[in-house]
Amino acid sequence: MQDQLPAGATIVPVICASDKTHLTNFWGDQHAWPLYLTMGNIRKDIRRTPQKLSWILVGLIPGPPKGAKNADEAWHSAVATVLSPLRNLDITGPGLKWNCANEFRRRCYLHLAAWVGDHPEQVMLAQVSYGCCPMCEIPKGAPMGQSTFRPLDNPRDQHLYSEFLDETNIDVLHTLCVHPIHNQFWQYPLCNVYRLWQPDELHQLHQQKVQKVF
Questions:
Q1: Where are the beta strands (DSSP E) in 131-196?
Q2: Residue among 35, 36, 52, 42 at smallest CA distance from 13
Q3: Which of 13, 28, 113, 147 has a C-alpha 20 to 30 A away from that of 188?
Q4: Of 119, 88, 94, which Cα lies nearest the Cα of 19?
Q5: Measured distance CA(63)–CA(33) in Å, rounded
Q6: Spatial distance between the Cα atoms of 104 and 129, rounded to a whole number of angstroms
């Protein structure tokens, strides 16, 4: 991707993070989703130091009341509103002219590169059924082997799902545990919503493997 940019330009990977936060038990079990943002160009040791304030709060999305319909779609719509500038990436365009820390002025191109969140956040962002893998098409609760529709190790394909949805192949989407709605994150250039996740050692390895096995 960097090779496609003009000289002096740079990619600015945007990293987002969200986590459903419980607020109170006394007024309808209120909860909200704080939405944080940082850039991948910041060194990891700086980005992970709280005192450096490299993460900024860009939104606080209120949770819907109990029993509300289309809650996931409302969350997606709110996040899409906050991150709407990221949908305008055009590699052939002029980009954004920013002053860098080394006093050089560069043309920057932002794109959504990663999302930090636990499994419920991943499922909601990917719009797949809870308990299913947000990255591949292994059936929920199925043993290692072959899927009933496509090979087990086949990664999720947002372009294919969009075609199924346009052709009203709803049964196929249900077979793959994909919600039959247009995912807002399909609209972000150079972004694969099923590849935004980073390894989560606490939830995916320790709690899911070590505690259950030992």
A1: none
A2: 42
A3: 147
A4: 119
A5: 7
A6: 47
The whole-angstrom separation of Cα 41 and Cα 165 is 36
Closest by CA to 156, choosing from 111, 206, 201, 122, is 122
Residue 15: strand pairing partners: 38, 114
Cβ atoms < 10 Å from Cβ of 133: 19
pLDDT tens-digit series, residues 113-158: 999 888 888 888 999 988 888 888 877 766 544 445 454 457 888 8
Q: What is residue 29's three-state secondary structure?
A: coil
Burial code (b: 16+ CB inside 10 Å, e: under 16) for 59-92 equals bebebeeeeeeeebeebbebbbeebeebeebeee
- d(CA 82, CA 76) in angstroms, rounded, equals 10
Indicate the pTM of the whole model: 0.81
CB-based contacts of 75, cutoff 8 Å, min separation 6? 33, 61, 124
Each residue of 22-68: pLDDT tens digit?
A: 777 666 567 888 999 999 888 889 988 888 889 999 999 888 777 77
User: Whose structure tokens read 């990663």?
Assistant: 114
CA distance 118 to 113: 17
- Give mean pLDDT, residues 65-89: 84
For residue 54, give Cα distances in angstroms to 114, 121, 144, 166, 171. Answer: 15, 22, 41, 40, 44
